[in-house]
Write a structure and sequence with these properties.
Blueprint lengths: L6 H23 L26
């Protein structure tokens, strides 16, 4: 069964992961996020209770 022979496919997988890890990933990680998270303090929202007409 040729599907069980890992000889060509393991090398292709290993080469693609090394390429991704060493070449592509550092280039992607150097981009600056266009929408950085804001560090504003969170304020508690005041809510008013709903007045039901039948109670």
């Amino acid at each position: 069964m040729p599907q069980l022979n890992p000889n060509p496919w393991f090398f292709i997988m290993l080469t693609s992961w090394i390429t991704f890890s060493l070449i592509i990933q550092p280039k992607i990680l150097t981009f600056v996020s266009t929408n950085p998270p804001s560090h504003k303090p969170t304020t508690a929202k005041t809510t008013t209770p709903w007045t039901w007409p039948w109670t």
